[in-house]
Design goal:
8 strands, eight-stranded mixed sheet, 8 helices, globular, 37% helix, alpha/beta
Length: 249
């Protein structure tokens, strides 16, 4: 489990889609035990960045047998300098963040450790990105309380199979699970979307997130861990990935 330099794969040169990427792009690599090849997962962090919670999520996937690369979308300046531009990129569907994700995906493909199958998983902001790139050559996508694209039908046309986990008490995403389920139904894309009764936003985190002074406000907003719902959500993801990623093509 270590931080790696992804910039050598070409993001600074701009050979991703549409825009130059981060010249100092980094990621956290969590590797399963053994020699491989492994099914692989590109992980996209939430709005608070590639923090300890995100690294533990990557480690968990590695223990389940997945070579997991958690890309740091805030590589060039941290959350304070990068959050706004990254969210703008998510809203527009273009920009540096998408180049960085493409570079990280290419790193996995070229690593020599994969079995040829790659999934993508995202949380919160990362869940939104996972939806946006689900049609870009992945074999499965796990979307956890991610915001839907402005035009979800167009954005998800041709997407890979999707497993989604949302909280019914999440005030930031009212109706998102039902909307996503309906769109994927209409498009004929294999999917399994569940909304957890009583769970709020970020319920899969194993610790409270954000600056300590803001945590009471987050609790009022329902943004807090829910261990029971999280355990079921993780099992759903592992079962889904096992079906779509474990076998070599």
């Amino acid at each position: 489990m270590t931080m790696i330099d992804l910039s050598a794969t070409g993001s600074a040169a701009g050979d991703g889609p549409g825009a130059p990427g981060s010249p100092n792009l980094r990621g956290y690599l969590a590797r399963p035990e053994g020699t491989g090849p492994f099914p692989s997962v590109l992980m996209i962090h939430e709005a608070f960045g590639l923090n300890d919670i995100a690294r533990r999520q990557a480690d968990r996937l590695a223990r389940a047998g997945y070579l997991t690369l958690a890309v740091d979308l805030f590589s060039d300046g941290g959350m304070r300098r990068c959050l706004v531009s990254t969210m703008r990129s998510l809203a527009s569907g273009t920009g540096k963040a998408f180049t960085d994700l493409a570079v990280a995906q290419a790193w996995l493909e070229r690593s020599g450790w994969t079995n040829g199958k790659i999934g993508v998983i995202g949380f919160c902001m990362g869940g939104g990105f996972a939806l946006m790139i689900a049609k870009d050559g992945f074999d499965a996508a796990a979307v956890n309380y991610g915001r839907l694209p402005k035009d979800p039908e167009e954005a998800l046309r041709g997407a890979c199979p999707v497993v989604g986990n949302f909280g019914k008490a999440d005030r930031t995403l009212p109706g998102a699970a039902a909307h996503l389920d309906a769109v994927l139904d209409k498009l004929g894309i294999e999917h399994d979307v569940k909304e957890f009764e009583g769970a709020g936003h970020a319920f899969m985190n194993d610790a409270e997130l954000g600056p300590r002074p803001l945590r009471p406000l987050f609790r009022v907003m329902g943004i807090k861990p829910d261990p029971d719902a999280a355990a079921e959500a993780w099992q759903r993801i592992e079962d889904y990935f096992a079906r779509h990623l474990a076998q070599s093509p």
